């Protein structure tokens, strides 16, 4: 028996849907609004700083506490540098950060106050993901500011210390590994929303909002997820 | 009617009690144990840093939050400098701080988690009192370390910002003034205990513990209380 064309109808549809070529977004090609981007990054740094010092304060081991305090210090230095850039533009940092505080606070509230190792993982994965994102995104700002912000965000805040703490925890407690794997998966969706929020501020090469076409944004998010998965792998956690 | 000598009996007793001349302790003349003192100061800085960043994070106004984050940054810089001194002595900071962590943690627990303005006051008064104390105490360490630590602790961590926040609060809410006055009085006893703890480590010029003779320690504590009272006055609070 012949079933000519069986299953075929779907194929052209699929092809047709993909047909209008979509220019994928390269983050560095976007035109972010400088003050929006700097304000957002500054506030996010402030939030990370507070998270890091709170996580440090909850460490039971004084060496871990010192190590995470080091992360807090590095993040605070980044915050201070971004604030200096805002001030160089004649902006008060509190005013520049204000429009983004509610959104980022919501993100923090959604993550809640998980157990200590989960909080360390948040710091590692969430800062990892968003630093990747914002470093690439900031590269679209005019020089010298753009490259400067990108370089700043690419500076290691001390991930090795966080990785060391997490690996030691996982090595000594098998249940912790599955708890952390779950948390890492739970975390990524909320964190991507923060990146999306920043993309919504940007304009593409035609001056159009970038988020009106999901297909253009998707590759950016997929790339962030791929890097997130590698971070999970490095900890021996299933992403 | 004559009441010769009325009330007199007390006078000779008072005089007699004061009779055996007590050499008052001048903090700078004591011989603190350097590693104990540095470990204690380092841990106290770490605790203040965590308090400051937590207080910053609870600020409802972003400018206040930035200002208190600045205090956290200054305290963290002091911590980092003391840690560097410990490391120059070949000590790991976590090990050097450890003996003092329980005592200082107890102090923090006793203070609890008061309302926001109370926490700002804690930062101002407690850091003010103990920085005075430890700066004078550290001056007894051999040069160059002693003067260096003293100079470090005399560096302003940003008290003006804290005073500004407190004065604005008091100006807009009369009940806050009485709440803060109460808190300031409540605070001083626990804070003096931390100074006492450090004095207990020190030896006097004869190599004897300084705290065995209360009368020698009292003037030091009285001086700290007098300065505390001036800080309260500056805020318009009754000490």
General description of the model:
The structure is a homodimer of 239-residue chains. Mean pLDDT of chain A is 88; it is low at 1-20. Chain A has helices spanning 10-18, 34-57, 62-88, 93-111, 116-138, 145-154, 159-172, 174-201, 214-234. Chain A has nine helices and no strands. Chain A is mainly α. In chain A, 73% of the residues lie in helices and 0% in strands. The A-B interface holds A 46, 49-50, 53-54, 56-57, 61-63, 65-66, 69, 72-73, 76, 79-80, 83, 92-95, 97-98, 101 and B 46, 49-50, 53-54, 56-57, 61-63, 65-66, 69, 72-73, 76, 79-80, 83, 92-95, 97-98, 101.
The gist of it:
The structure is a homodimer of 239-residue chains. Chain A is an all-alpha fold. Chain A is 73% helix and 0% strand.
Radius of gyration of chain A: 20 Å
Low-confidence stretches of chain A: 1-20
* CA distance, first residue to last residue of chain A: 45 Å
- Portion in helices of chain A: over 70%
Class by helix and strand content of chain A?
Answer: mainly alpha
DSSP strand count of chain A: 0
Helical segment count of chain A: 9
Largest pleated sheet of chain A: none
Strand share of the residues of chain A? under 5%
């Amino acid at each position: 028996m012949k079933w000519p064309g069986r299953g075929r109808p779907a194929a052209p549809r699929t092809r047709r849907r993909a047909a209008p070529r979509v220019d994928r977004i390269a983050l560095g090609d976007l035109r972010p609004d400088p003050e929006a981007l700097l304000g957002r990054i500054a506030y996010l740094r402030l939030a990370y700083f507070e998270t890091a010092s709170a996580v440090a304060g909850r460490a039971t081991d004084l060496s871990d506490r010192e190590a995470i305090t080091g992360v807090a210090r590095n993040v605070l230095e980044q915050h201070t540098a971004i604030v200096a850039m805002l001030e160089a533009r004649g902006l008060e940092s509190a005013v520049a950060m204000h429009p983004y505080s509610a959104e980022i606070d919501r993100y923090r509230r959604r993550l809640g106050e998980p157990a200590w190792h989960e909080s360390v993982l948040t710091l590692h994965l969430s800062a990892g993901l968003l630093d990747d994102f914002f470093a690439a995104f900031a590269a679209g700002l005019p020089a010298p500011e753009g490259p400067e912000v990108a370089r700043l965000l690419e500076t290691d805040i001390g991930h090795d210390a966080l990785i060391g703490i997490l690996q030691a925890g996982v090595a000594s407690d098998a249940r912790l590994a599955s708890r952390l794997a779950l948390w890492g998966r739970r975390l990524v969706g909320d964190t991507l929303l923060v990146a999306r929020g920043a993309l919504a501020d940007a304009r593409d090469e035609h001056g159009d909002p970038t988020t009106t076409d999901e297909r253009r944004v998707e590759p950016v998010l997929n790339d962030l997820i791929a890097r997130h998965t590698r971070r999970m792998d490095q900890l021996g956690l299933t992403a």
